[in-house]
Write a structure and sequence with these properties.
The complex is a heterodimer of chains A (about 575) and B (about 220).
Chain A (H helix, E strand, L loop, with lengths): L5 E2 L13 H28 L2 E2 L4 E2 L4 H7 L4 H30 L3 H15 L2 H12 L4 H5 L22 H23 L4 H10 L4 H8 L1 H20 L3 H6 L7 H9 L6 H38 L9 H30 L16 H41 L2 E2 L2 H12 L2 H14 L6 H26 L3 H8 L4 H12 L1 H17 L2 H6 L7 H9 L4 H29 L8
Antiparallel strand pairs in A: 1-4, 2-3
Helix pairs in contact in A: 1-13, 1-15, 1-16, 1-17, 1-18, 2-13, 3-7, 3-9, 3-10, 3-13, 3-14, 4-7, 4-14, 5-7, 5-14, 5-24, 7-10, 8-9, 10-13, 10-16, 12-13, 13-17, 14-24, 15-18, 15-21, 15-24, 16-18, 18-21, 19-20, 21-24, 23-24
Chain B lengths: L10 E10 L2 E10 L4 E5 L6 H9 L6 E9 L2 E2 L10 E4 L11 H8 L6 H14 L15 H14 L4 E5 L7 H17 L4 E4 L3 H5 L5 E3 L1
Parallel strand pairs in B: 3-8, 3-9, 6-7, 7-8
Antiparallel strand pairs in B: 1-2, 1-4, 4-5
Helix pairs in contact in B: 2-4, 4-5
Classes of the chains: A mainly alpha (about 575), B alpha/beta (about 220).
């Protein structure tokens, strides 16, 4: 990728055109990943320091940084963001690592794997709504045990969802981050010969779990470190899940920032911008905290590894790992089922486990209102995913044609939009778009989605492209096929499945985007996600159930297409079977 | 392209010196005449396959070379892989799994002639190797031997001026290996193709009366 890619030595025998579209693709990718982000950060920094001429801010000042610190509840919000970022990552990683250590390659592992990709595709907001419907005082769990076990004939007066310490928020984030880290773990495992390492360690007498932790984990963690950082950044600055499950008074800092950004008093824009810089600082602090934690774990781990203990008796640990991972999958699935039931529920009084009647009436009534947001969601997802896939393929093909290698610096650029908190630069970006009259329309929203879809597309496709047997390409070229024919007639058809799965992932990521749609769309490009989250405050469970179900279905359709299309396009081919 | 004085239809490697990361890997000077099969043997890492990569145009970027690669009197160094008219066979048949056998063979044909003419060429080629009934089959459903023979037919249909064989028999079991080996050698001689074979297997070389180069 661009300058970050290291050209080894100019190929002396392979001759390809220099000014082709493949050659400029890396530069376009770097532009997409960095320029809007930098522009957004500048767009936040200037008002944070008081410079926002159209609002009367024509001189630089530190006043707003000072003012933010004195907003009631700021410190609590900041602590909550820091805690949520670190704790979510710790719990999610602990669940994934303990499960990998306990069950790698076993039947329970294969069973869980089947659920992970679909769960990864569930939008954050839908998962959060599902959890809320499950754990709320009037939710399904309390209904299941009432009144026979609890004696409750009315929902108890418990503050579970939106609790002030953010436990529900943490739980909701864990439900989404576990599948993400799980998939990253699988991808990383394919590069480090897990079986070989385990065999060596177990042949030395180490128990299964300890063998994995000592011989596999250090290498695996090195591979998934950037995704872990992305989880920290996301969790410490999340808005949509925090609006649904997080505390309200005071809310997490990113939620507070969103409120200030939308405050009728325009002066609050300065406060919001300064707050966004603090949010950036909090995410950096969360990353630094994690880094210190890494050092401690590294030190302690090394001492434990050379202690000679074999830890062969690990059954309790394995049981706990299975319960935790099974729990995450079960709660996620139950949440989705609850959403579906609520969307069709007629009369459903507490403590009935199921509604007394089911009805499609609400669906019929809401459908016309959902059509426009649903079409927006689909169109934005198709555009952002299509462009991201094309750009990723061009970059990867360029890598092959020019025999380039992606350096670690390039990988860091890829993770940049995932590690810099959305709220810290999207506000600035939206301000700039307003300045140039580009806010509130389809294309800026779709292109902003691309910033977040592109890294996943590239990472997902790069694994498939690099594992591809290039001898097929050489065989095709030696048969007289031009480089473009080789790409479009051989490589892409053979990679159809991974390309479609990457596209499905891209669609799911785009469908789930809340903040980019809200801020860049200026509320004038409604999607299913923005509408669903707007309903959160209303508390109409049937309506929320319908929107969250549609949101989930839109994501699932992509995966369904990825499974079915290869079989339809290439019938009777074992390769796609 | 520069025309020079070399035997017509031959594959000539003139004063070739291949460097890996700037260090000399091997030196080679060889002429392979039409219908002749020359074998390159040597331990792993000696550069056997690198020679084939050089000729076919796939030399990795950390390699460089000096010398001339002449085919039919033309220095092919300037040509991209698709224009070199070099038939390449690997250890695996590498039939494209998204195409059926017929389409795999069509892939090797140039775009000249109507579709009907091209289909006829493919049908004749399949008939010539007694596999006429396999045209509509998914290549993944063929046996290893059938796949290897189809792969060679595909290469031959592309009208190559030389044939490069990169351990093409090593993935076959011993019974099948002899059959496929004889088939390939027979076709190479019949088409008068200068052929370069890279192999670990002494038997592959023993069956040929051509030169053996040990690296």
């Amino acid at each position: 990728m661009g300058q970050a890619l290291r050209t080894r030595q100019l190929m002396k025998t392979q001759k390809f055109g220099r000014g082709d579209i493949f050659a400029i693709a890396p530069a376009v990718m770097i532009f997409v990943l960095t320029v809007p982000l930098l522009a957004g950060l500048i767009g936040v920094l200037l008002p944070a320091f008081g410079y926002f001429p159209s609002l009367g801010g024509d001189h630089f000042t530190l006043q707003y940084f000072h003012d933010v610190l004195h907003v009631p509840g700021f410190w609590h919000s900041a602590k909550l963001s820091l805690w949520t970022g670190v704790a979510t990552t710790f719990v999610s990683l602990a669940i994934v690592i303990s499960f990998f250590a306990s069950f790698w390659g076993s039947r329970p592992f294969q069973r869980i794997v089947r659920f992970i990709s679909p769960l990864m595709s569930v939008p954050h907001a839908a998962a959060a709504f599902g959890l809320a419907f499950l754990i709320a005082p009037s939710g399904w769990i309390v209904r299941l045990v009432s009144p026979w076990a609890t004696g409750f004939h009315h929902p108890p007066d418990w503050l579970i969802v939106n609790d002030p310490t953010g436990k529900a928020l943490l739980f909701g984030l864990v439900l989404k981050e576990v599948p993400f880290l799980f998939l990253m773990g699988i991808s990383a495992s394919s590069q480090i010969n897990v079986e070989g390492r385990l065999k060596v360690a177990m042949s030395l007498g180490y128990g299964r779990v300890w063998a994995w932790i000592t011989s596999v984990f250090p290498a695996l963690y090195k591979q998934i470190r950037l995704p872990v950082f992305a989880v920290i950044a996301f969790s410490s600055s999340v808005v949509d899940v925090a609006l649904i499950l997080g505390p309200n008074h005071p809310a997490m800092l990113p939620v507070q920032l969103l409120r200030w950004m939308n405050d009728p008093m325009l002066e609050m824009r300065f406060i919001a911008a300064a707050g966004a810089i603090y949010q950036l600082g909090i995410t950096v602090l969360a990353l630094a905290t994690w880094w210190v934690g890494e050092l401690v774990v590294c030190y302690v781990g090394r001492r434990m590894m050379i202690s000679g203990e074999r830890h062969q008796n690990d059954q309790i640990f394995r049981n706990a790992a299975l319960i935790m991972m099974g729990g995450v999958v079960l709660v996620s699935l139950l949440g989705l089922i609850t959403l579906l039931i609520w969307s069709f529920a007629g009369f459903w009084r507490f403590p009935d486990v199921l509604p007394t009647s089911l009805s499609t009436m609400r669906w019929m009534r809401v459908s016309p209102d959902m059509l426009w947001p649903a079409l927006n969601s689909i169109n934005i997802a198709v555009v952002s995913t299509g462009l991201s896939i094309a750009l990723s393929i061009f970059c990867l093909e360029n890598e092959y044609r020019r025999d380039l290698t992606v350096t670690s610096a390039a990988i860091r650029i890829l993770y940049l939009p995932l590690i810099v908190p959305q709220i810290a630069f999207l506000f600035g970006l939206s301000v700039l778009l307003v300045r140039f009259g580009l806010d509130g329309s389809f294309w800026p929203v779709a292109l902003t989605h691309m910033i977040f879809v592109l890294p996943y597309m590239f990472l997902s496709l790069s694994a498939a492209f690099r594992q591809f047997d290039v001898r097929y390409l050489k065989a095709a070229a030696s048969l007289g096929a031009t480089p473009n024919e080789v790409l479009f007639k051989v490589r892409l058809p053979m990679l159809l499945k991974p390309v479609l799965f990457a596209a499905a992932l891209g669609v799911a990521i785009s469908i789930a985007q809340y903040l980019p749609t809200l801020l860049v769309g200026a509320g004038r490009v409604p999607t299913i996600t923005t509408d669903a989250i707007a309903l959160a405050a209303g508390g109409d469970r049937r309506l929320i159930g319908i929107y969250a179900t549609v949101q989930t279905l839109l994501s699932f359709i992509g995966f369904l297409a990825a499974v079915l299309l290869p079989k339809l396009l290439f019938p009777n081919k074992k390769y796609f079977g | 392209m520069t025309k020079t004085e070399v035997a017509p239809k031959s594959l000539c490697l003139n004063d070739i010196r291949i460097f890996r990361d700037g260090e000399l890997l091997l030196e080679l000077n060889v002429e392979v005449r039409p219908g002749e099969i020359t074998t390159i043997m040597g331990p792993s890492g000696s550069g056997k396959s690198t020679v084939l990569s050089l000729i076919s145009g796939f030399l990795p970027s950390n390699f460089s070379f000096e010398g001339q690669v002449m085919l039919d009197g033309v220095d092919i160094y300037q040509l991209p892989p698709s224009k070199r008219q070099i038939g390449l066979m690997f250890q695996d048949p590498l039939l494209f799994p998204h195409l059926n056998v017929e389409d795999n063979l069509m892939f090797g044909l140039t775009a000249e002639g109507s579709k009907a003419e091209r289909c006829e060429l493919v049908a004749k080629a399949l008939e010539a190797v007694n596999m006429a009934e396999l045209g509509a089959r998914d290549p993944m459903t063929l046996s290893g031997g059938q796949q290897s023979r189809i792969a060679l037919v595909r290469v031959l249909l592309s009208n190559p001026k030389a044939l490069l064989l990169d351990e093409p028999f090593s993935s076959l079991d011993s019974g099948l290996r002899n059959k496929v080996r004889n088939f390939v050698y027979q076709q190479a001689r019949a088409k008068q193709l200068p052929t370069l074979l890279v192999t670990h297997d002494q038997d592959d070389a023993a069956l040929i009366d051509g030169k053996i180069i040990k690296l």
